[in-house]
Every structure is written in C-alpha cells, then in structure tokens.
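Hi R.,

As promised, here are both runs. First protein below:
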Amino acid sequence: MKKLLVPTDFSDNAFLAATYAAELGMKQKFSLHIVHYYTARSSGFDEAELTEESEHSDILKADLTIKDWAGKLQALYPELLISYHNDRGLLEEVLPKEAKREEYIAIIMGTTGATGDKNIFWGSNTAAIAAKSPIPVIAVPNKSLPNELTRVGLLTNFKQEELITLQEFLHIFKQDVHVDLIHVYKDTEDIETVNSRLESWVFNIREFSAVRETQICTAPTVKDDKELDSVSEVISKLIAENNIDLILISRSRKTFFERLFTPSVSKAMALELQKPAFFGKTI
C-alpha cells in the first residue's frame, strides 16, 4: 500500500493538512505516515512539565505529543491505516531524504505552522520542501476545504514538464477533472500570438483521458497597476475568479509559490495561498 507522508509541527494548521491527507487516503486507499522533526531546543520537557514517568526515562516531549496527535486523527478516520515517528533534524533537510523511500507517493503539508515561540516559519519550509522533494508535494492552506475536487488550474509556460505534473496529479487523485490553463503574459506581447500558442498547447492537455474539459485563462502583467504588481498576484487573481479547486505547479513555476511567502515591493505583506497547490516532483 502506498503512503502519504505528512509532516507536522503539532499545530492546528498542520492538523488541517493531515485531515486533507486522510480524506485523500480514504478515497484512494493510501495509508498515512506522520513525521515530526525536532531540534535539541524543541525536544525536551520544560521543568514544570516533568512527570514521574518522564523524569526517569529518555522519552522526548515529541514522542508523547505525536502519539496523542496521531490518535486524534485516527479517531476521526478509524478505518485509515496511520503510522508515525519522530526524528531529529531540520525539516527541509531531512524530509526530502525520508521521501525517497519507495512506499511514499506524495508529501502533504500545511503552508503555515504554529504561532508564537513555536513558530518555525512553516510557509518558508513548505516552499523549500517543494523545491527539493523527489515526490510530489501538496501544500494545503490553513482553512477548511470542500471534499469535492472538480476543477484544477495548470500554470503554463508551454513546458513539457507541465504535462508530467498533470500526469503525476492524475496518477494520485485518479479522477476526471476540468483543467484551466493559466498563463500570464507581458503587456508588450501580442495577444493574438499568445492565444494562438495556448490553443496549440491545449491539444496536449486534451490527450489525457481523465481531462473532460479545458479552458484558457490569461491576463497581462500591468506595470502601473499598484494592486497587481507581479506575476504571482495576477495568477492569484485568475485562480480566485475562475473558482479553481487546486493549482498544479511544475518545476519551472515554483518561484510563484515562493513569492506567496515573500513580501512584494509595493505591498509590504505576503500573499496567502487560498487553494491547495500540487507541485510536481523535483527529481
């Protein structure tokens, strides 16, 4: 049985991602493996938290927490096979190595983590994992999501790897979908030429038997528009306007995801990912 690899920092946001993974696992008959990576700072008990049991053992705080956390998820999905373990190391360094094991089919993780003194800047980690992972990564926003997935948006620059990403998505989700081709072009480009290239490229998408319908979504970058000051902002607007359920991002477009967590020049705030994003594998 193939496994979904689900990293956690024990936050509510990570639990939302885990429930998304559980829903997918139930539907496609995958099991879940939950993993938590700790550092020396995060692994020990505070003095006030010590109990007689833990005082005389080498059980880490994370060992107790992950058991309860996985148990909470198991209670919601009693028929789902769930395993877990803790390991020492930095998430972005150790998780891609774990993902190389043959049984894993995808990583599913949140885009934000815990707050306050436990903040590990999860969004930055998610972007780093998406850039390094040998298997697809599904990034889940911190919000409740509908169970139905009918419409996906494929970011396109007419690259062959975009077709590979679509194939990877269909291999995991195993369902018919409507595909929106999302393309942002420079305002200096000829729109007729852009549309002609898209009409030619869409034939490649229609070759997939699971693709029932296609639609082309385009918009130019406008230099003097203060509200849409980068490609990522324009893409986000197209995604919202077309009610897309999930975004497909190939290797060549991963900088788009990184921009979601990087303040733009004119806004001084980061964009928030509102839809799940599926990243094609790096290797």
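And here is the second one, sequence first, then its structure tokens:
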Amino acid sequence: MSHQLDDQLAAVSRAQHDESGFPSAYFFAPMSNPPSGGTAPVAARPPAADLGPGPAPESNAWTGAEKAVFRFAFLYFFLQVVPLDWKFYRDIVAHWAGVSLGDLFRLTHYTPRFFDGPDTFANWTVVAAIAAVGTVGWGAVDRNRAEYNTLYYWLRVLVRYRLAAALLGYGFLKLFPMQAPLPSLSHLNTHYGDLSDWKIFALSLGIVPSYQSFLGLVEILGAALLLGRRTASTGAFLVLTFLGNVFLSNLAYEGGEYVYSCYLITLGLLVLWYDLARLNRLLTLELPTRPNHFRLVLPAGWPRAGQRVAKAAFVLLFVGLYGVKAYAAYQQGTYHYPTAPGLPGAAGLYNVREFRLAGEVRPYSATDPERWQDVVLEHWATLSVRSNQPVALDPSNTETIPALDTERSFEYAGAAGRHYYGYTLAPDGQTLTLRNRNPHENRRPLVLRLGRPDARTITLTGHDEQGRALYVVLEKRNKKYLLEEASKTGRRGGLRL
C-alpha cells in the first residue's frame, strides 16, 4: 500500500509541471481509492517546484573590495568628465556673447590635458594616479561606510550626460553632412598615392552624404536614449557597437581621434556595467533575475525643480542651440574649406602651357622640381600647384571647427603632391598676392600680375620666392568628374565621360 501511495504522489509532482519544465498554472491532486476501500480520498499536497537557483537575496552592504574599486572609479571618471581646468571656463565666458558652432563643439569635445600636443593615453595615466592617491585617502576616512548606491547613481548621471554631449557634438555634424566634406577640385586631381590613409577615409565618407547622415542619426538616437534613466543601458549598448567601429577605423586609417573614441568607449562601458550582470543572468544564463529596485527620490522643492531645470538646460543647449547652429553652418557650406570667393568663372583644372623662370623656358617635365605641372583654381580663394618639389606634409587629423579661413587646414592636411596657396585680389583686379597655406612651408608671398586674355586662359607675371622673374600661361582643361556627372543623371541613368 505504501508503494502505491508513493507512486501516486510522484505522478502528482510530474503533473504539476508543463512540457517546458516550468510549474503548471493549474494542478489538481488526484483522487485515489486505497485498497481498503473504506477511507476517504486522499488529496496530495503539491511539492515545491524546483526552478534551479533563484535570484540572490538583496543585500545593501558592499564588500571591502567593491567599495575600494568604486572609490577609484568615482574619482577617475569624475576627473575625466568634469572640467576642472580654469581656462575651460575662461574660454566659455570669453566667447559666450557670440557663441559659435565651434565654441559649442569644443564644449562637447573636452578631455583633461596635462601635456601639450595631441591627446595621448599619458593624460589618462595622470588621472589614474590622482584617483589612486585619492582612493587611499578616501578609504582611510570613510572605511565604515556600508554602501555607495547614491554616489553610484550620481556618477552614472554625470557619465551619461557627458557621453550624450559628445555624441550630439559629432551627431549633428554628420546628420547635416559636414564632418567629411566632398572632395575639392584639388583633391580630385591629386594622385591616390599622395593621400594619407586618414585622408582617403575622410574623402570616401564625404562622397556619400546620405550614409554620413545615417551615422549621425545613430549617434543622436544613442544620445537620446542615454538621457533617460530607464533607457540608458539600451543606449549604452547601441553606442558601444557604434564607437567600437569608430575606434577601429581610427586605428586602421591612422586617424587622430583614437584616444578620444576610446575615452567615449570607457564612458559607455561604465553606463552599461550597472545592468550588465543582470542582463547576463537573464539573457545568457536564463536564470531568474531580480530587477533593480534602487531609485533616488529627491525631496520636493528646489532639489527636484533643479533637476528638471538642469536637464532642460542641457537639451536646450546641446540639442536646440547646437542643432540650429549646425544646420545654419550646413546652409552656408562646409567649415573645412575657406569661405572667401575665388576669381569669378575661373574654377577648374589648368594645364601649364608655358613656364618661364629667370627668362628661361622650362618645357614640361615630371621631374623638374621648379616647373609647374598643372594648377587648380578652386571656387574659393585657393590656388594649388602640382610640381615635383617635395611637400611638407601637414599631419593634422583631428576634428576642429575653425572660424578663420587661415585656420582651415583640411584641403592640404594629409595630402602631398600639391602646394596650396590662398590668394587675394587687389582692388585694381590685376594683382594677385599668393600666400602658402601650409604652415610647415615657410615661403615668401608671391605677388603676380594677373592677365585673362580670354575665358580659358590666365597669365601670371612676377617673381618667385627667390626673386627670379616668373611668367606662366595657364590653359583651362574641359575635364569632367564622375561625381558631378553621376549627380546629373542619377544612380540609374546612363553615364558617359
């Protein structure tokens, strides 16, 4: 009899689970008639369902190791995120009356610097050293603290908004495709081997503005998700996949923003870390997971109102004002090239039909370092000369938004084979003053007499940097460019060059 009763109880236990192994929502104890036949039916009590290891019990106390790691992380990221350099605030006050797109971009691009020159990981080392020293002192005076949940919350807020500002800074430059501009005429007439890896990447991105806008939209979407507490981890995951590609692109093409992109990756990892263990337990291990119950409730009054005002000010500054200024700059043209207009109707590629130096006619030669091979006149006031004379390569490859034409280096940075001159035309309309744009080439200005005997011919008369007599005859070529011709016919139209 006892064996029969055990079999019935085992059947009850199996019946309480559905086919997936989870406890069934409905279960009933079977009615059994024991062999004696005189006793009442027995209702079996269902045993507890075996779901495997449940979520760990909540504990507010942190271990000593957790508190030490947090103290270091808090100080490290606080120093990385919050500007403590007084010159940063001096520049804000100095430019606030006429704040420009470049001023706002510099706000979003801040990182602490302890050394001159381009940003390097050496600056991180200094920050880590300061944080390590601070961790030791903090631990000595606050060793009895049970947890740092509130400080952890505020650290995530700082990092979330700092990362969102950086993404908005670059996102709007891509949404209105300006970060990577279309190639200039000089670029289109530069040998492929004369361009640096970074320059090739930038120009390749510039010829697909719609894709560039899509990348900007991804950055802006990630920033918007980071602004919400509930969507911050989702935004961090999206941003990390994007920034990982940016970091690898900088390494592969020798870009100058690999340190900054790695900096943003560390911020994204900190934001995601808060929910990473829970996500791993729920999605990877497929175990019951306890949700996050911590929520900071500010007292009513000015603290809660101040929080709303701060968030509204952030959105107004980095979404409203910055977005409007980015669109206005896009309408005016890219900030990478000079804005001063060039000679009317002169833009194009020119063959050097005649070249005289010190009264001597120099025939065309690909090896003569002094003889001009061809000349490009841009739509703006830039004249570039291709010759065999070595070019002092400008290594600038970081993102800036310069206000003055003389500070705009994109056209000659990372490009060899051509010498770039900015020019001004005297009021008489016949005197050109050429100044080398490349600061690494210290050359005297050229003052040349301009002649335009017909619409396709330009003559230049004067003296070169060494004072020798110079006479050049330029003849315009009727050259077609694939980018321009394809834009006229569309993607599916016929094309003949």
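A quick note on the second one: The beta strands are 348-357, 360-361, 374-377, 382-386, 418-425, 431-436, 446-454, 457-463, 469-476. Let me know what you think.

Best,
J.
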